[in-house]
Amino acid sequence: MGIDWLPREHEKKDHRLFGDEHWGTEPPCTVYEKRPLRDPDGKEIDGLYTAWVTLNNPEQYNSYTTEMAKGVTAAFSAASLDRSVVAVVFTGAGTRAFCTGGNTKEYAEYYARRPNEYGEYMDIFVGMVDAILNCKKPTICRVNGMRIAGGQEIGMACDFTLTSDLAVFGQAGPRHGSAPDGGSTDFLPWMLSIEDAMWNCVSCEQWSAYKMKFKGLVTQVVRALELDGEFVPNPLVITDRWVEDGQIVYGEFRTGKEAEEARARLKSGRVDLRLLDEAVEKTIWRLANLFPGCLIKSIDGIRAKKKFFWDMMKVPNRHWLAANMATEALLGFNAFNTRKLTGQDTIDFIRYRQLIAEGREMNDETFAEVLGKPRP
């Protein structure tokens, strides 16, 4: 006898944890949309989709506000729990930036001097990174421009990075009053050599997409500058030679007269992300033609290594970052936020160190000595 007689529910459950209240269309916001899965010929596949999560704040280089961070968490949760979604693409609006981190204006004007408030914000940020790392669909960071600071961190939380060769990558923490403890101090040592990870974290240098591919941090680099009807490599970056004076120069930025000529060449072309989108679609199709259960188990097995130190450090880092909002972050974020008034985006680091050496109290007088002054 079969078991046809057992009562069964037929209506599918809605497993979503969030509604659409954290998404929008007008910047600054996070945009969430489902796009039909397409085969290599461009034909739409019935009932299957790619989820696109877009940071939509192009005027501020797609820096995420508090509400946008909530939107990213809600989006990755929705995609994870959607049976029809094959993969998630995480990107930014426009062609200038994927993301340059947290919104410095919001940091300087609200969270500075409010450590508890920033601690609660960090709970939202940690939830955003967790949502990416815990998503039960493959995640692709589509880097359409700068991936800097917190943008680098949330990008590295993704499984794959496909990038325009015009993009730049790097950290900004120690230069602007923080530490890259939103994931970079956890992820970079897995992805780079320990010394490359160390230098990338503390130097605040910007590295090219080609250098990041050479170092092993990204999956694929594609051309994005169209000039005279064809796609050409980023002229600002050395890609035509490997060694110069005994040093590896491939992927380094050009300097001097070469850089001037490269900037002129760059301005004469047009940014077109068509090849990047083709690479993203090709990757998604490759992932779609795998057993979904085996795929996500394999992905989670690799993610576990990234999550190990992230899970170990995310709580103590949250507390330190909150406390730091009363001191160096207050200085760093306000210096950057007032750069148009003062003409400089950092404090006077040498004077600050001199004051520390004197045992100076951290008060408004000390802050005033190292912050820039409004220009007449």
List the SSEs and their pairings.
Blueprint (H helix, E strand, L loop, with lengths): L28 E10 L5 E13 L9 H15 L4 E8 L4 E3 L4 H8 L3 H20 L4 E5 L2 E3 L1 H7 L3 E5 L3 E3 L2 H4 L7 H8 L2 H10 L2 E3 H7 L4 E3 L2 E3 L2 E3 L10 E2 L2 E2 L7 H13 L1 E2 L2 H15 L3 H33 L3 H10 L1 H4 L6 H9 L6 H7 L6
Parallel strand pairs: 2-3, 3-5, 4-6, 5-7, 6-8, 7-10
Antiparallel strand pairs: 1-2, 8-9, 11-12, 11-15, 13-14
Helix pairs in contact: 1-3, 2-12, 3-11, 6-7
Quick description:
This protein is α/β, with parallel strands linked by helices and about 375 residues long. It has helices at about 65-80, 105-110, 115-135, 150-155, 175, 185-190, 195-205, 210-215, 255-270, 275-290, 290-325, 330-335, 340, 350-355, 365-370, and strands at about 30-40, 45-55, 85-90, 95-100, 140-145, 145-150, 160-165, 170, 205-210, 220, 225, 230, 245, 245-250, 270. It starts with about 30 loop residues before the first strand and ends in a 6-residue tail after the last helix.
Main sheet properties: 6 strands, mixed
CATH superfamily of the largest domain: 2-enoyl-CoA Hydratase, Chain A, domain 1
Reported by name, the CATH topology of the largest domain is: 2-enoyl-CoA Hydratase, Chain A, domain 1
Corresponding CATH architecture of the largest domain: Alpha-Beta Complex
Counted beta strands = 15
Strand percentage, roughly? Answer: 15-25%
**Looking at the structure, what is the overall shape?**
globular
Q: How does this model look, in words?
A:
With 376 residues, the chain is of the alpha/beta class. A 6-stranded mixed beta sheet has the order 1-2-3-5-7-10, with helices on both faces. A 4-stranded mixed beta sheet has the order 4-6-8-9. The relative contact order is 0.11. Helix 3 runs antiparallel to helix 11 (292-324). It contains 15 helices and 15 strands. It starts with 28 loop residues before the first strand and ends in a 6-residue tail after the last helix. The chain folds into 3 domains: 29-224 and 273-324, 2-enoyl-CoA Hydratase, Chain A, domain 1, CATH 3.90.226; 225-271, no CATH class; 341-376, no CATH class. The model has no long low-confidence stretch (mean pLDDT 95). It has helices at 66-80, 104-111, 115-134, 150-156, 173-176, 184-191, 194-203, 209-215, 256-268, 274-288, 292-324, 328-337, 339-342, 349-357, 364-370, and strands at 29-38, 44-56, 85-92, 97-99, 139-143, 146-148, 160-164, 168-170, 206-208, 220-222, 225-227, 230-232, 243-244, 247-248, 270-271. Helices cover 45% and strands 18% of the residues.
